[in-house]
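Data deposition worksheet. Section B asks for the primary sequence of the deposited chain exactly as it was used as input, without tags or linkers unless they were present during the calculation. Section C holds the resulting structure in token form. Section D is free text for depositor observations; keep each observation to a single sentence. Incomplete worksheets are returned to the depositor.
Section A, Depositor: J.P.
Section B:
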Amino acid sequence: MPGEASRARKAAATKAGADIRGEVLLTLAQLRQATPRQLKALLRPHQQDTDHVRRALRNLLDESPPLVGRTHRAQQSYWYCTPAGLAEAAASGELAPTAGRTTRKRIAASKTGLREHGLALVDTVVAFHQAKLADHADWQVEVAHPTPAGNLVPDGIALLNNGSSAFVEIDRTMSYARLVAKLERYEAYRSAPPSGRGNAARAPRSHWQETYAGPSMDRPFPPLLFIFAPAPRRAAPATREAALHERAHRVRGVNYRLTVATTTLQQLTRQGPDRPVWRVAGAGKDRCPLDALPKAR
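Section C:
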């Protein structure tokens, strides 16, 4: 009977929503915000629709107090963790303690213009996840890194499947001066003097060496990946990408101690980060896949 079939599908979605409740909550806590479509791509890529993810989101919304919140724009829903949801995710022990610096202010920002910036980062996470270059659980968002010029806060850091890392920056509205300043902040982080005293077995290391170089110091400074996303009343992503390349040579270390590669969000999501979408600063206009980026020295 049609009614019985409908009830069966609803019951199945309800059960599936309960099964992935924890995954949805942890993913939102880690990535800050996401649409049902993005969550489906990360958690249930082989399902045809978003019914199970939406059921899990509604279950989390119906908790008392609610563990997630949502807002709407252009017939699309955007979901984020509430303070109660962040607390539950942290209490699970499965959320990395350095996964970010979410505050009430940042949660409120999910309802403002910063939302599109955050969703562009999640689209980037989805692209890396689908290409099997980095699992969605192996990302950190807005982690502060100390430099002599003040903290450096990358938009995202991906732990790649080969054990190395990559810094990721999403640009929608930054001025060219701010883009260059961000590059300079990375150079300040890379060149910061070692901290600590070291010991007889090991010389003192800088923060990036302690965090990313590995125990045998065999890994170079992580590449810096700039992804240009569209924004109203701003130059096209390809135009902003070209402008950064024109200015990147002014920053000491670029194309030597800093590997800077760029692409547009459209290229990244349509082709994938494992395809030749990355243009390396100082290396001409040819593009290469992620695993062909030159290593920083």
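Section D:
The chain has two domains: 1-95, 113-297.
The beta strands are 33-34, 68-73, 76-81, 139-141, 156-159, 165-171, 224-228, 260-264, 278-280, 287-288.
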